[in-house]
Structure formats: structure tokens, C-alpha cells
Amino acid sequence: MNWSISFEPLVSWPLFGLVFAPLLLLALAGLWFRQRGSTLRFIALLALGAALLNPVFLDEERQALKSVVAVIVDRSQSQDIGDRAKQTEEALAGLQERLGRFKQFDVRVVDAGKSEAADERTETRLFSALEGAFRDVPPSRIGGAIMITDGEVHDAPAGAPDFNAPLHALITGNEHEKDRRIRFENAPRFGLVGKPLDMTYRVISTEGQGGPVDVRVSVNGQQVSVEHATIGQPMKLEVTIPNAGRNIVQLGIDHEPGELTDANNRAIALVDGIRENLRVLLVSGEPHAGERTWRNLLKSDASVDLVHFTILRPPEKQDGTPINELSLIAFPTRELFVEKIKDFDLIIFDRYQHRDVLPILYYDYISEYVEKGGALLIAAGPEYAGESSIARTPLMSALPAMPSGEIVDKAFYPRLTDLGQRHPVTRGLDGSATDPPHWSRWFRTIGVKNPEGEVVMKGADDRPLLLLDRKGEGRVGMLLSDQGWLWARGFEGGGPHVQLYRRIAHWLMKEPELEEERLTADGRGMVLEIRRQTMSDDPGPAQVITPSGKAMTVKLQKSEPSIFTGSLQTSEIGLYQVGNGDLTALAHVGPVNAPEFSDVISTEDRLKAPAEATGGSVRRLAPSSALGSLTGGLSLPSIVPVRSAGAASGDDWIGLRTTDDSALKAVSRVPLFAGFLGLGLLLLAIGSMWYREGR
């Protein structure tokens, strides 16, 4: 029972003071001058004042509140090493059993340290979880916290945490653990394709040992070299980036006997390959309405270095003007087509015809250039069907179609073929979804016979309009109309000339995203996403090999024409191998070189400062004695409730604070001057005063 007194005045305090103060002064003056009956008058005045103040005795019924104790359980992946997971479960069960004996503790168990968010770094953040556990608890009710962890905590404060209660840490793992790991010291995120990239790495041993170690270097799953490194020393590495887009550089060292884990015996660097500026040679046969369409498009692309020549003065136009009086630049045929032809990524002939500007032998050089991996685009006009067509030169061996001699001057809408609706060059062109397409008409088609390769667009009377073909290691494209400039000029609303021309050029230059058959994989958080681009109707399932070597199958679903996708929810962090048909791909799932595996040795050091700042303790669960190691038991401390001013830890016990807070359940009121008792006391005081005054 909790007794207290309270006043509930019958009149307001200002009115009480206004009336009672003068009377009190008169009564005190009577006492001072020792007037007859002043004592009884003073007592009667006090009784009247007490009646007006209405004193009430309160009896409060309260319930003692519990102290909140947080048990933070580290569920990070480093806790799966060795027997740490078993130690954790045994320690948690033992703590719950011991804490359950004390009714004054409200125990909250929080699993922490395991994150599967898409873009979140895999770190062991136990203090963030602790803050969440105490978020709704008043500071006076926090009894303390117990962490079960291997000590590798990445958000531990340098001093005391934000609560005034003991923090205790129970460390899993064993003393004298050893491990060896490798990491990148410097790994640029970008590199030029085909150029060496400088990187730096280091091999680290927990025992501080030195000596040599072999490091395997792989790029996109293919081992490229074996480096000889010195443990503990920064080592330089030079790799060549083979592809544009995402490249995976992996370093690996052998597992050493007695190591905790080999999860950190590999280091990954993701490098985005960037092509140097693409070199394009554009040769225009003669000025025409669409001559600048290709030029403007290629000049607007910052990744393209363009060399453009227009043949303004062919040999048949010789008029006797001396060369030194002409402002024209001579066409450097030998320099371009003999000495530097291999430097170009793409050669475009725009309405070009053979007029003895190029020697016949040079066309053979161009064909050889294509066979060895070069790219050639023919933007054909009426010249292609004439007597001076380049199809009548040795270049014919590289061309996908021979001219039939026809020139069809007829209005038509360029349309995608069935193949073109699936081909990455023309698939999804803006305006192609309707019939007729939502773009302007063209008015000329150049006839060809026996087309080879892939016909992705058709013109008037369903004749081939855009051909794409492979010749040896190179590629050839042929656009059988010179009317594309109508789209660029906005005729009848124009059309997607930039989108189409750019795709054609980049397909010819082997842009990976425009390959007809392509398999890619990527990690989004802990999800492996697979994308298959194919010209077939069903590529079949994808085969996946996890970092641990387990084989799995992922079904691919059609998401859009020629695009099939699938996903796999994973739990392993590392490099995944994906295969489908003859294609393979690599993807890294989870954080790259996660801090969780940067150091896996269990330690007491990181939590010692915050624990000691709160009066808590840090101790290992595994006994250090040989007997304890043989029996396999845990050294679990006892739980002792302590007051706020007492010690919170001992050799074999840990203390948790109890609270003095309570909750009010009910209040009983006993008025002192209520009813006949108050009336009797008041009458007694006034009557005594009247009796004394009457004598």
C-alpha cells in the first residue's frame, strides 16, 4: 500500500487566499499580544481552513514493472563457420532458461546480422538491432543487453552505447583460430577493352606469416595467369579487359590446412569494359539528298571517331585545272585501304560506285578486311544497280546480295519481317507495332537476287530492304534504299532513323547487347537474374552451378519477343555459372568482397570498449581449458539481478539491472473533512471558541 495526502479545495486558491489571509493575520496578532481566547480562535481558523482545503488521503495500488533485457543473436554468415552456429543455439537456450527464472525481466530475443536487401552491404550490424529492440522502452526500464556473436561487429561504437545499462557479449568460436585471405587493394571500376588495366591486391594471414603463395587470376571464368605473391605485401597485377560491359576479375588462393573457411580465399572485382572511340570510315559516292544523314548521326555519337570523304571530282571529270589550284582534298586511297584499314571498326559506302577512284586490288583488301573481323555497310542507291556497281568488283565476295538491275520507284512503308520482329537490330523499333507502321513512306527500292543472311526489313512488293550477314569473322549490312533521309527530315512525321541506323552500325561493330544469341546473368541482392536473347522459339531451361558446386535448373519464361528471363532466390554469396545451349555466363550474387568475410576470426576486441563503458563484460563461450575442450561444454555465466549502483559482472556471472518503475492500477480516496467527521470537528472547534469567548 502507498499512502499519500492530497488537497482538493472547495474554493479556488485566489479566493481562499483573499478570505483566509486577513483572518490568519488577525489570529496570529491575537497570539502575539496574548489576548484571551486567541489560541482557540487560531485552532478554529485552522479547522475552517482545513475544511475548505478538503485534504484527502490517497491509497495507490501499484504493480512493479519489469526490466527489459535484449538478447541479440548474431545470425550473420560468419556464424556458420565451424561450430559457431551450434554454440550460438546452445548459449541462447541456456540464457532463455536462466532468464526465465526471474519474473522481473522482460526478455526480447532479436535475430540480427543477416541481410538480404538488394543493395545493402553484408555487414554484421548488431547495435542497430539493439537500438530497435529498445526503441519503445523508457531508459529507466532498460535492464541490459546480451549479445551472442563471434565479435565481428561492424557498427560497434567506440564508447558506451546510448543506454545506461550493462552490455554483455558472449563470443562464439575458439581461441587461436587461423585464416588466410586475399583482397583487392586497388581495383578500378572501368577499363578500356583490349588494354591492360593496373590493379593491386594483398594476401593476408592472421598469424602474420610471410612467404610466397600462388594466386590464380581469372577473367570472366577463364584462368589467364598464375601470379607469385608474397604474403602481407601489396602486389601489382595487370589484366586485359576482353569485353565491353561487365567483366569479372577473380583472384584465388589454395585452401591451407587448418583454415577456418575458404570463402575469403577468393576476391572479386567487377570491371565495366569501355571501348575506345570507334573508328568509322564513311565514303559517299557523290552528293545527294541523304548524304549528311549518316554523317550527322555518327558525328553526334561521342564514342565514334568519323572519317568522311565525298567523291566530288572523279577521274572522268578532269577539266585540266592544275591540282595546286583546287581546294579539294585528294582521296588518300592507299593510306586508308592499305596502311590503316585495320584501324577502322566500320567502313560505310554510301551510294558509292566504282569509278576508278579505288584501284581494283583495293576492293580485295576490303573483302579480306571483312573476312578477318571487319564491318562493312552498303547504303545502296541507283548506282548499285548500274554498270559501275561495286558488286562488279572483287568486293562481291563480301556482299550478301547481287543486284538484279531493277530500281523500283514506288511508295511503300518499310516493314519488319517476321525475322526482323525478333532480331535485336529491328525488334521494338518505335512505330513498328501498328500496320501500317507509324512512320513515313519511302519511294525507292533497289532490287537484288539471291539474298544471303537475314532479311529483317522489307520494302516495296515485299522485296528485301535491310540485309544483315556474317562473312568469315566479320559482318556486312546492306540497306537497299537511299530514302532514309525522309525520316530524318520529318516527311509525313518522319521515323526512327537514329534508332535504326545506330543499331545497324553497332551490330556490325559487334555490340554485345545486339547479338542475336546472348546469355547474361546478374545478381540483384540475393537473387540471380538470367536473361536469354535468342532467335529461337524456346531456348529451354538454364543450368546453374552455385559457388559450392551444386547444379540447379532454372526455367526461362518469355517476357517479350525473343527475350526469355528467369530468376533464382539464393542463399550463397559468390560466383555463379549459368549455361544454356552453347552459351555460358557468369554472375556474382551478393556483395562483392563483403565485409562479413573480410575477417572471420572471432574476437573480443571490437566489443570490449562499449561493454566495459557500461559496466558489462566480454567473454568466450568456449572454455579455454583442455578439459573443457574435451567435454565440449560451454562456459555460460550465471544471471544475477543487480541494483543500478551495484557491480554488473563477475568472474562467472553477469548482472542485469532491475527497475523501480511501477504502473498505477487503482487509487482509494479517504477525505478527512468529509461527512459527519468533518462537521463534528469543525463544530467542536467553533463551539470551543464560542464557549471561551462567553466566559
Automatic annotation (TrEMBL):
Positions of transmembrane segments: 12-33, 40-58, 672-691
Keywords for this protein: Membrane, Transmembrane, Transmembrane helix
Presence of keyword Phosphoprotein: no
InterPro entries: Class_I_gatase-like (IPR029062)
Record-linked PANTHER family: BLL2462 PROTEIN (PTHR37947)
Name the UniProt record assigns to this protein: Glutamine amidotransferase domain-containing protein
Source organism: Mesorhizobium album
Source organism phylogeny: Bacteria, Pseudomonadati, Pseudomonadota, Alphaproteobacteria, Hyphomicrobiales
